[in-house]
Amino acid sequence: MSSNTASSSAGSGDSSATRKNSKRPKYSKFTQQELPACKPILTPGWVISTFLIVSVIFIPLGVISLFASQDVVEIVDRYDNDCIPAPARTNKVAFIQGDAPKACNRTLTVTKRMKQPIYVYYQLENFYQNHRRCGFFMDIKIDIME
């Protein structure tokens, strides 16, 4: 009988008392997803003018990028076979793990004039290592001859 009276007293009480015990969120347009939405009307004039404005902005950027990329000089030099002595080419892993000297000097010929600054990138394939640990130990000496 006490459970009946408790439920009836809670139902007959004011709404602030029931809201405190309720798990339902407070009613608002945001929680009910009733906010007004932006619904633009896509007329042909609006679409064409937007397309023209975007093209006027990005076509010159593309042309500038195209001209800038034509000054890039890229030289790819694979030295995985040339830096290993001929007798050790059949078993490269044994050569790498062995005690033989592993110094390798490569000469690259650049056929196109390059402006300063010159950036050199080193590419490794099928090698997965944390860059911070790997980059800390890298020491590459580059001699630029004119």
Automatic annotation (TrEMBL):
Superkingdom classification of source: Eukaryota
UniProt cross-references to Pfam families, sorted A to Z: CDC50
Low complexity composition-biased segments: 1-18
Residues spanning the signal sequence: none
Record flagged with keyword Metal-binding: no
Region spans: Disordered: 1-28
Topology in the lipid bilayer: Multi-pass membrane protein
GO cellular component: endoplasmic reticulum; Golgi apparatus; plasma membrane
Transmembrane segment boundaries: 46-68
Protein's cellular compartments: Membrane
Keywords, comma-separated and alphabetical: Membrane, Transmembrane, Transmembrane helix
Family membership: Belongs to the CDC50/LEM3 family.
PANTHER family per UniProt: CDC50, ISOFORM A, CELL CYCLE CONTROL PROTEIN 50
Protein name: ALA-interacting subunit
Species of the source: Brassica carinata
Native organism taxonomy: Eukaryota, Viridiplantae, Streptophyta, Embryophyta, Tracheophyta
